[in-house]
Design a protein that fits this description.
Number of strands of chain B: 64
Mean pLDDT of chain A: 79
Number of helices of chain B: 28
Low-confidence stretches of chain A: 35-42, 97-102, 107-111
Shape of chain A: elongated
CATH class of the largest domain in chain B: Alpha Beta
Number of domains of chain B: 7
Oligomer: heterodimer
Strand content of chain A: 25-35%
Number of domains of chain A: 1
CATH topology of chain A: Folate-binding fold
CATH architecture of the largest domain in chain B: 2-Layer Sandwich
């Protein structure tokens, strides 16, 4: 098995240069702490907030269809980016309803 | 030797004989022979014994299509005799033989076949239970191919080559050459791979009407060689095509590649990978064997084998020959062999019609007995063929399963012919291996009677014989079309050319009609027919086995393949491939078209495992103090990417090292510690996100200890953070996490758009840990800084100067539980500071200590190591470090905080406890006496009743305590103090039980007084050392070449080699390749969200990532959206780093090399898969990617000049690997002058 990914900085590279950051699942849900007033944002029950966080942190659907996912170009420029890929074929896929192309989310360290 | 008279097609040099040995006998062949042709030429008929029945096997094919021709060469098993060039002094041996190959002791197994039906090893010997193992061992002794000899060292030189092509062409026959030419003429980068050592395919050996056909393509091949963008790789089989057109294969050098050195040894092989935008597969066709009784006897061979023996190697394949063929190529071969003086006694053609009438007329004209609709039915003779029986095929039935009457000699519809050569073939099948690997689909076609291409994967095209074309014009025309289609896939505008070529092909003869025969006529016999009719030679799969498989309902090719072992051997699909489907169709009474072709899997042609392993360079990081520690007796162990000193003596308990730290002072090289600089308006928020503590409390001059968790609350890292400015921090991570830290921070802030910058300084700074009661006494001798507890307390951090004004960041920490100072100094200064400390500590008897001593020291103190005292079930809270967590902070979105909160009140979790191992003999009485109890090993299980309830993380004997102590993770209910634990471990076959008592996990100095107040240490040996000026500071490169410097220069503390003795003639270096160490030259990192507004040294940062600008002796590389690096390439001294937070001096972060000379592309091609010389890209340009798996920044300046920067720690090992991999291209160390001369020439 081998495929390539398109790094927004470096272009198409072998998948071995990247590490996987999981499917796109949105930012971390806000944490609810009893007494902080934050629970209003996620519902009054802290258990619901914990459950939401738990699902966010642990659940992956693993559907064989194109998905947006995060990759880190560790052996190259060192940026995180998101891209669309079909896990059934391992080919990059056209973005499903999102803006085209990967976007860069951070720079490289210097060593 | 039975050689024919010389012919124009042969590829042997009869003037040069080559001596070799066969099973101990001295034999001779010619230069240009393969092992197989030399053996056959020397009269050897039996090459090996078969896998299961130990049947004698000879030369069936010359392409490695099966195991019959596998031999051992110089002790290395399973070498393909047909494709291995003969070399002087080779020791060639037969395989799977006890005794002589002609009289194998186990040959009688052949008579026991009825006890070995299809799949018998799956079905028999299962009861009683011991039988399976017993018979398995027996069978393994009897069956098999070569024997791996562990006493034979691997002698081959292995190399790698990474190629880039617009169009890759597989196969160098007429179609492949035509395709490569079309693409090459358009200026595309083309790589053509031909598995034989020459181009031309089957035209190379065919002679028709006395005229060699090789001339038909030699002009095309010649033109191909002249196109600069085309590279031709000969003797380079393709092993597979993988995702997105990655081709893999290997090449045996010394056989005609453009770059070969001609001195290769027998086992030299180069693994290559080629990334292509489009692929043309022109693998041609292979023969389909005819199946009949004893169709595996030595003396029976393919049409191509017979004709190539004669035409390529000048070897007489036999004296009296019979032919049983199924196509015109077979008839042509019979005529040609007859013209060479072989007595061709009969030619049977399974076809009844569709012959080339000219060939038939010529055969009859030559007085050869030609029989239409006949085929071979049986071979007589064992190790040598004595007679062949042929019979007429009956007209009834779907195919071949006809019976003939009595086998009386020569009567009516059968015939016996005495001969020593039977050329047998049922016809031809396309060589679909590579296409099948690429993901092509096939469907059986009625006209060609073969599996025809149904669907091709994207950007893969097929041409020539693999489409069953046979007409020479049609072959080249289909090649041209495929080449044009591939060019179109690369974006070339070839619509016009395609529109002209396609109708031309349509007017030419199409795919040839195939023959339907799979099995020769079957005579009435007493025993079941098909017993010795082989569908697969590799695993002795017979027709009868196929019928048995079908009887067990494994009645489609894919199932029969596995149950009956057809095509699972080295030849894979070649011999049984299409025949298996045809046989199953006949046995099951179904049309062949209802079956799918079995899938071919890589490697299509097997390379040696050593080739796949490659050069296998040991690339790791070394600290700047590696060499000195080695001199001091360090025993190194790998720890992550680093090689670290584990012990400094043969004592694996390190008692002396430990005692020295507890009582005196020791030195530890802790350079792999992760070190980072983070700054920017949102730097603090980023730290708040990943650290569990309240990082707003970090203060200048003070170390704040904290930890990082993952989303499930597992502790993954710990370290200290120091505030170094308003929005700027310096922090450390554990050595194992250093590589992942930047990634981690960026990942967990990826949605926030925060403005912060990070620089990894792990390699830029060495870290020296000075620990022990006398640490202060040593340190104060090399610095004027105030070191008292008041001025520099525990957990303080000070910027000090040591020795000759060398800057050091000094952290007062106490991981080992003693007064200790961690000195972070520039990596290039590390050796200087290390030497100062040794000198200053000499009067105390300072000693080094290694990782094992540190491990004991910290465990005595109860300090955890992440990954040793923690694992994926264990949270920060479980190991008693919950005090670090700022549980009030919910606003920062701390990673892991939600999980910590969730499991805060959970019961039944694992908890970290201290252990005191019970000593049945009682405490032996303190001090240094050893207790006698068995020490449970790290990892021993804690057992409660009949359940596993935890495990031991670390146990050691403590001299300090006088007893065995340890740390363990146990279920909470067992974690109470004083509880007795049962520990179990396996020692070989024994299970050893011991017991221990739970104690608090702080053994040594539980109150931490030794860290906070410097205790009274051993007094200095002599009085106050005379104050003397420190020696001048010097800086060192991470690289040391194994070459003699001729001229050196001192420059700002560096000792720069201008010339090596070997550079005396610098033009020679440039004609090949030189490796220059530029690590002493300055480099700076520039980071800013709006990097366009930063003008480092007054220069503009290039607009796009990958762009490089050179001005005023400085090179600016744009790395990504927010980052650039500036390299000092010019003459003279480097300018001073500008002020401002955007700049970081990263001179010490990297090893910086220049590769100069004409062979640079060749060197780099063997170490990296990156496309560094992409045509049409404006140079210089920057590529960031792996070289020998090490992430590098690479600037392609010109084809003969490439700059390379990578983590400093890799310096020495990567340089050694580069020199080794580049040796074939003449790569050698060179002095800086080669670089400065090159720059000067560039400017001039």
């Amino acid at each position: 098995m081998t495929f390539r990914l398109t790094c927004p900085v470096c272009g198409k590279r072998d998948v071995y240069e990247f590490t996987y950051g999981g499917p796109e699942r949105g930012p971390r849900p806000a944490e609810a702490d009893p007494g902080s007033g934050l629970e209003a944002a996620v519902g009054s029950d802290p258990a619901v907030a914990a459950e939401a966080h738990f699902r966010w942190a642990q659940f992956r659907m693993n559907r064989p269809e194109p998905q947006e996912e995060w990759w880190h170009h560790g052996a190259g420029c060192g940026v995180w980016f998101s891209t669309w890929r079909d896990p059934a074929t391992n080919r990059e896929a056209p973005p499903g309803g999102a803006e085209a192309g990967g976007h860069e989310a951070g720079g490289r360290d210097s060593s | 030797m039975s050689r024919l008279p010389p012919s124009s097609t042969e590829r042997i040099d009869r003037s040069r004989t080559v001596g070799f040995r066969w099973c101990g006998r001295a034999l001779e062949g010619f230069e240009g022979d393969t092992v197989a042709s030399a053996l056959w030429g020397a009269g050897i008929r039996t090459f090996s014994r078969s896998f299961e029945y130990h049947r004698p096997r000879g030369l069936y094919d010359l392409e490695g299509e099966g195991s019959s021709q596998l031999v051992s060469i110089d002790g290395v098993p399973n070498q393909s005799a047909g494709t291995t060039p003969l070399r002087e002094g080779m020791e060639v041996g037969a395989q799977n033989v006890r005794g002589d190959p002609r009289f194998d002791v186990f040959g009688l197994l052949d008579r026991l076949d009825r006890f070995m039906p299809a799949g018998f090893y799956y079905r028999l010997f299962h009861r009683p239970a011991w039988a399976a193992r017993f018979f398995q061992e027996r069978m393994r002794g009897l069956a098999g191919l070569g024997v791996l000899r562990l006493d034979v060292p691997d002698r081959g030189a292995r190399a790698e080559r990474y190629l880039h092509a617009d169009v890759a062409v597989v196969g160098g026959g007429p179609a492949g050459i035509s395709a490569a030419l079309e693409a090459g003429r358009l200026g595309l980068r083309v790589c053509l791979f031909e598995r034989r050592p020459w181009l031309g395919g089957h035209l190379d050996w065919r002679v028709r009407d006395g005229r060699p056909l090789a001339g038909e393509v030699s002009a095309l091949a010649g033109e191909l060689e002249r196109i600069k963008s085309v590279r031709v790789f000969r003797h380079a089989p393709v092993t597979g095509i993988w995702g997105e057109n990655l081709l893999t294969g290997f090449q045996c050098p010394g056989t005609g590649s453009r770059t070969d050195s001609g001195t290769a040894a027998a086992f030299d092989e180069t693994h290559w990978e080629c990334r292509a935008r489009a692929v043309v597969v022109a693998t041609g066709s292979i023969e389909r064997p005819l199946v009949f009784e004893h169709n595996d006897r030595p003396g029976l061979m393919q049409v191509d084998t017979a004709i190539r023996l004669a035409r390529t190697y000048g070897v007489r394949p036999g004296t009296a020959a019979a032919f049983s063929v199924g196509d015109d190529l077979g008839l042509e071969a019979a005529l040609d062999l007859a013209s060479l003086g072989v007595d061709v006694r009969v030619v049977a053609d399974a076809r009844r019609e569709g012959h080339d009438q000219a060939l038939v007329a010529a055969l009859v004209g030559a007085g050869i007995d030609f029989r239409r609709g006949w085929a071979a039915s049986r071979v007589r003779g064992r190790s040598r063929m004595s007679r062949v029986e042929l019979a007429a095929r009956t007209t009834t039935g779907s195919g071949s399963g006809a019976t003939v009457g009595s086998a009386a000699g020569g009567a009516g519809d059968s015939l016996r012919v005495a001969c020593d050569l039977l050329v047998a073939s049922a016809g031809r099948q396309p060589d679909i291996g590579v296409l099948s690997c690429a993901g092509a689909r096939f469907r059986h076609g009625e006209h060609t009677r073969t599996f025809e291409l149904e669907r091709l994967p994207p950007d893969v095209f097929a041409a020539g014989g693999v489409l069953r074309l046979t007409d020479l014009e049609a072959l080249t025309s289909s090649g041209r079309i495929a080449g044009l289609e591939a060019a179109a896939a690369c974006g070339a505008d070839v619509a016009g050319a395609l529109a002209r070529e396609r109708p031309r092909l349509a007017d030419l003869p199409g795919p040839a009609r195939g023959s339907s025969i799979v099995r020769g006529p079957v005579a009435e016999r007493r025993l079941a027919p098909g017993r010795k009719a082989f569908l697969d030679f590799d695993e002795d799969g017979t027709w009868k086995n196929a019928a048995q498989s079908a009887a067990y309902a494994f009645d489609v090719p894919e199932l029969a393949k596995r149950f009956g072992n057809f095509g699972l051997g080295p030849g894979q699909y070649r011999v049984p491939g299409q025949n298996l489907a045809m046989a199953m169709a006949e046995i099951a009474g179904r049309p062949v078209g209802s079956f799918a072709a079995t899938t071919v899997r890589p490697p299509v042609i097997p390379p040696s495992l050593a080739t796949l392993a490659g050069p296998n360079h040991d690339i790791h990081k070394r600290t700047p103090l590696h060499d000195d520690q080695a001199l001091r007796g360090a025993v190194f162990r790998r720890a992550g990417p680093w090689l670290r000193a584990r012990y400094f003596s043969a004592d694996r308990e390190c008692l002396e090292e430990i005692r020295n730290v507890r009582e005196n002072v020791g030195l530890l090289d802790s350079s792999p510690l992760g070190k980072f600089r983070i700054w920017g308006p949102d730097a603090l928020r980023a730290l708040q996100r990943v650290y569990v503590s309240d990082m707003t409390r970090t203060r200048p001059g003070r170390c704040t200890y904290s930890a990082m968790c993952n989303d499930t609350g597992n502790i993954i890292d710990d370290g200290v953070v120091v505030r170094t400015g308003e929005d700027e921090f310096y922090f450390t991570t554990s050595s194992n996490r250093a590589g992942a830290t930047v990634e981690w921070l960026r990942f967990h802030t990826r949605y926030d758009g925060w403005d912060y910058n990070l620089v990894n300084l792990t390699d830029a700074f060495a870290s020296i840990n000075l620990a022990g009661p006398n640490a202060r006494g040593v340190l104060e001798k090399i610095t004027d800084a105030e070191l008292s507890d008041e001025a520099f307390p525990y957990l303080g951090c000070r910027e000090i100067e040591v020795g000759d004004g060398v800057a050091a960041r000094c952290l007062r920490l106490g991981f080992v539980g003693e007064l200790s100072y961690e000195l972070h100094v520039r990596a290039s200064h590390a050796r200087y500071v290390w030497d100062l400390l040794w000198e200053a500590g000499a009067e105390y008897g300072i000693r080094p200590f290694g990782l094992e001593a540190q491990n004991c020291l910290r465990a005595e103190k109860g300090h955890v190591i992440i990954g040793t005292e923690s694992e994926q079930r264990v949270t920060l809270l479980d190991i008693g470090m919950g005090w670090l967590w700022d549980r009030e902070d919910t606003a920062s979105g701390k990673v892991g905080a939600a999980a910590l909160r969730y499991c805060e009140g959970q019961s039944g979790r694992l908890k970290l406890v201290g252990l005191r191992v019970d000593d049945p003999a009682g405490d032996a009485g303190g001090g240094t006496a050893r207790n006698v109890a068995h020490r449970p090993a790290d990892g021993a299980l804690v057992v409660d009743g009949d359940r596993i309830a935890g495990f031991v993380c670390t146990t050691r004997h403590s001299e300090t305590l006088g007893w065995q102590y340890g740390l363990a993770l146990v279920e909470e209910r067992l974690a109470e103090r004083g509880r007795s634990l049962d520990l179990y471990e396996s020692l070989g076959r024994r299970t050893v039980r011991s017991t221990a008592t739970v104690v608090p996990p702080h053994f040594h100095d539980p109150k931490g007084q030794r860290l906070r107040i410097a205790p009274e240490g051993r007094p200095r040996r002599s009085g106050e050392a005379p104050s003397q000026p420190a020696p001048a500071a010097h800086r060192r490169s991470p690289v040391r070449f194994d070459a003699a410097p001729a001229r050196t220069e001192h420059r700002a503390g560096w000792n720069v080699v201008l010339d090596y003795e070997s550079d005396r003639a610098p033009t020679d270096v440039m004609r090949q390749a030189g490796l220059v160490d530029l690590s002493h030259r300055a480099r700076w990192d520039v980071q800013n969200r709006d990097i366009g507004t930063v003008r480092p040294f007054g220069l503009d940062v290039p607009a796009r990532p990958g762009e490089v600008a050179v001005r005023d002796g400085l090179m600016i590389n744009r790395m990504n959206g927010t980052q650039a690096s500036v390299w000092h390439v010019g003459p003279g001294a480097a300018p001073a780093m500008p002020d401002g937070p955007h700049y970081t001096d990263t001179t010490d972060s990297h090893c910086w090399l220049a590769l100069l000379g004409d062979a640079v592309p060749e060197v780099l091609e063997s170490v990296t898969g990156l496309d560094l010389f992409e045509p049409g890209r404006a140079r210089p340009f920057l590529t960031q990617g792996p070289v020998l798996h090490v992430p590098c920044q690479i600037v392609t300046w010109r084809a003969d000049a490439v700059l390379l920067a990578f983590s400093r720690g890799y310096g020495q090992t990567l340089v050694e690997a580069l020199l080794e991999s580049g040796r074939h291209a003449g790569l050698r160390p060179a002095g800086e002058r080669v670089f400065t001369d090159w720059i000067h020439a560039l400017e001039g």
